[in-house]
C-alpha cells in the first residue's frame, strides 16, 4: 500500500482555496477582499509600482494554483510584497518600487547558451508561452531575517532545463540579470561586480521546488519583483533568487555569485536557510514577518527539507548555509 507522507510545510487540502473559486476571477478577487489572501487592488496605494497585468502576456493570468505547494502562514499583503523590495540595480534600500518602473521589459530576449545542444536567443513572450504555467504559494526568507509568503505564478525550472537540452558535462546553471545603464542607477556604483550573477547546481535547478516566476498575486510580475522572469528557490536565502534574468548559461564550472564575489566571508554559493548558522553580523534563529512584524523561529531549509535535504548529503565539508 502506498502511503504518502505529508510534508511538514503543507496545510490540509480542505484549507486551500477551492479550484472552482480560484478559476472564477471575480470570485477570486472577492475572496481577496474578504481577507483570504491579502489586500485587493482597489485598497492598494495608487501608483505605477503596483500596476500589473498590462503587458503582452497579461492574458495568461491568473493561472491554476497547484495545491501541492502551499503553506500554513497567512499570505503577505500584496501592497507590502510589491513595495518592500531588494533590487540593488535601483538602490540599496527597500523603497525602490517606483524607481524600478523605468526598466524596459519589452522587448525582452533571453539567451540560453553554454553546454547545450544548440544555443538560442528567444523572446520572453515566446518562451513563457511554451512553458507549463501554474501558481505556487511559497515562503520567502531574506538573509536580512525578514520573511513573507506570496503566490508566485510561473513554471518549474526543470521545464526550462528540458527546453535547453544541456549536454552531459553541464553541472551548473549560471544566470545573469539585465544591465540597463540608462534605467538602473545602481549600476553607477562601480564597486559592485555588475552584472548580478547567480548559479545553481543541476540538481538544484531540476528540483521540483525550483521555479521561474513570471507572475505574482495572479497577475504579471511587476518590475520591482523581478519582471519579466526571476528565480524562486524557497529553501534558500532571498539573494539567491536572481531577478530580471536575461541569460541562462549551462557550465561545468561553479559560478561565483554576486554577493559571494563582494564578501565571501558573509555570503556563500549555497545560501540554504539554517537557523543554527548565524550571519557574521546577526542571528538567523528568528525571522520577522512582513505582514505584522511578528518574530517567529526560522526553520531549517525554510521548512522545505523534505524536498531538498537529500541534495546535500555527503557535502558536510561545504559551507552549505551561507
Description of the structure:
The protein is of the alpha+beta class and 322 residues long. It has a single domain, classed as Sulfite Oxidase, Chain A, domain 2, CATH 3.90.420.10. Helices cover 14% and strands 20% of the residues. It contains eight helices and twelve strands. The chain has helices at residues 19-23, 25-33, 78-81, 124-128, 157-164, 202-205, 258-262, 305-308; strands spanning 109-114, 120-123, 134-141, 146-156, 172-177, 197-201, 211-216, 219-220, 230-232, 245-251, 286-289, 295-297. A hairpin with a 2-residue loop joins strand 7 and strand 8 (219-220). The longest helix has 9 residues, at 25-33. It is globular and about 45 Å long. The N and C termini lie far apart (40 Å). 40% of the residues are buried.
Describe the protein's topology:
Blueprint: H1 19-23, H2 25-33, H3 78-81, E1 109-114, E2 120-123, H4 124-128, E3 134-141, E4 146-156, H5 157-164, E5 172-177, E6 197-201, H6 202-205, E7 211-216, E8 219-220, E9 230-232, E10 245-251, H7 258-262, E11 286-289, E12 295-297, H8 305-308
Parallel strand pairs: 1-10, 4-11
Antiparallel strand pairs: 1-2, 3-4, 4-7, 5-6, 5-10, 7-8, 7-9, 11-12
Key descriptive features of the protein:
disordered N terminus; seven-stranded mixed beta sheet; 322 residues; Sulfite Oxidase, Chain A, domain 2; five-stranded mixed beta sheet; alpha+beta; 8 helices; single chain
How would you sum up this structure in a few lines?
With 322 residues, the protein is an alpha+beta fold.
Amino acid at each position: 500500500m502506498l502511503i504518502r507522507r505529508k510534508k511538514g510545510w503543507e496545510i490540509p487540502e480542505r484549507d486551500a482555496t477551492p479550484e472552482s473559486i480560484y478559476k472564477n476571477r471575480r470570485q477570486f478577487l472577492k475572496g481577496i477582499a474578504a481577507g483570504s489572501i491579502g489586500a485587493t487592488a482597489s485598497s492598494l496605494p495608487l501608483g505605477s509600482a503596483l500596476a500589473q497585468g498590462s503587458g503582452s502576456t497579461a492574458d495568461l493570468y491568473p493561472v491554476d494554483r497547484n495545491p501541492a505547494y502551499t503553506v500554513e502562514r497567512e499570505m503577505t499583503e500584496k501592497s507590502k510584497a510589491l513595495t518592500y523590495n531588494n533590487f540593488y540595480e535601483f538602490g540599496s534600500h527597500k523603497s525602490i518600487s517606483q524607481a524600478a518602473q523605468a526598466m524596459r521589459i519589452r522587448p525582452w530576449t533571453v539567451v540560453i547558451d553554454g553546454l547545450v545542444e544548440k544555443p538560442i536567443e528567444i523572446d520572453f513572450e515566446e518562451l513563457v508561452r511554451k512553458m507549463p504555467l501554474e501558481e505556487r504559494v511559497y515562503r520567502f526568507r531574506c538573509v536580512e531575517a525578514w520573511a513573507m509568503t506570496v503566490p508566485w505564478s510561473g513554471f518549474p525550472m526543470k521545464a526550462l532545463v528540458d527546453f535547453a537540452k544541456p549536454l552531459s558535462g553541464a553541472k551548473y546553471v549560471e544566470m545573469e540579470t539585465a544591465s540597463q545603464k540608462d534605467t538602473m542607477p545602481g549600476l553607477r556604483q562601480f564597486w559592485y561586480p555588475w552584472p548580478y550573477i547567480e548559479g545553481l547546481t543541476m540538481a538544484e535547478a531540476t528540483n521540483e521546488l525550483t521555479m521561474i516566476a513570471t507572475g505574482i498575486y495572479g497577475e504579471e510580475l511587476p518590475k520591482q519583483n523581478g519582471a519579466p522572469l526571476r528565480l524562486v528557490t524557497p529553501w534558500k536565502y532571498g539573494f539567491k533568487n536572481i531577478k530580471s534574468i536575461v541569460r541562462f548559461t549551462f557550465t561545468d564550472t561553479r559560478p561565483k555569485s554576486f554577493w559571494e564575489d563582494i564578501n565571501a566571508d558573509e555570503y556563500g554559493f549555497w545560501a540554504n536557510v539554517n537557523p543554527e548558522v548565524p550571519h557574521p553580523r546577526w542571528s538567523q534563529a528568528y525571522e520577522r514577518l512582513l505582514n505584522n512584524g511578528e518574530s517567529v523561529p526560522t526553520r531549517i531549509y525554510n521548512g522545505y527539507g523534505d524536498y531538498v535535504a537529500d541534495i546535500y548529503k555527503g557535502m558536510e565539508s561545504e559551507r552549505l548555509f551561507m
